[in-house]
Design brief:
Length: about 200
């Protein structure tokens, strides 16, 4: 699973730190630069802050090509009718979507293309949950929720009621998620087993 790389980040950081000069600020910047490179190469941007927090390192956000990102986002969100594929959230401020994002099913860092059949429009909560492996989609296009997800408050409304529900169809047939991308997500990102 892709989350196994976090211990590798720590040891790579230590090797880079040892090779930097004795100046602590230069060493820290070398570690931060290495962390940015590892994050950009292996993880979607939505996970960067959580990973750096888990290893106790402050790193400013990394960015990808904004032209590529904005076109992917625009086409995926439009293909899903400007609604979250999981919960149907659809809020706009004036003529702009508010809190609606495009998630890659198979991450770019692992060969996933910037195509609509590799994307889902998601509210920010479900994007984070999808990228962290709390939810996924079966080959039958049913929403699956991890047995490892727990909590209180809105857990039922935001997640548990979705388990086993059919994923809505995108407004464009070409945006139907491709099976190979869904299989990758379940094998590499989804955490634990689907609830029973």
């Amino acid at each position: 699973m892709v989350f196994g790389i976090i211990p590798e980040c720590r040891s790579a950081s230590l090797r880079k730190e040892r090779s930097a000069s004795a100046d602590p600020s230069r060493r820290l910047e070398a570690v931060r630069q290495l962390a940015r490179e590892i994050l950009a190469a292996h993880f979607p941007a939505s996970l960067h802050r959580g990973i750096t927090s888990a290893i106790g390192l402050e790193v400013e956000a990394t960015t990808r090509s904004s032209g590529r990102d904005s076109e992917f986002r625009r086409s995926v969100v439009a293909a899903w009718g400007h609604r979250c594929a999981f919960c149907g959230y659809a809020v706009q401020l004036d003529n702009a979507d508010l809190g609606l994002e495009a998630a890659h099913i198979r991450w770019c860092q692992f060969g996933g293309p910037d195509t609509t059949d590799n994307g889902l429009a998601c509210c920010s909560i479900h994007h984070q949950a999808f990228d962290r492996g709390a939810i996924t989609i079966s080959d039958q296009l049913l929403i699956l929720v991890s047995s490892r997800l727990h909590g209180s408050g809105k857990l039922d409304d935001l997640f548990l009621t979705l388990h086993g529900a059919p994923l809505p169809r995108p407004s464009l047939k070409a945006a139907q998620p491709r099976r190979e991308f869904l299989e990758w997500h379940r094998a590499e990102v989804f955490r634990g087993h689907a609830r029973s």
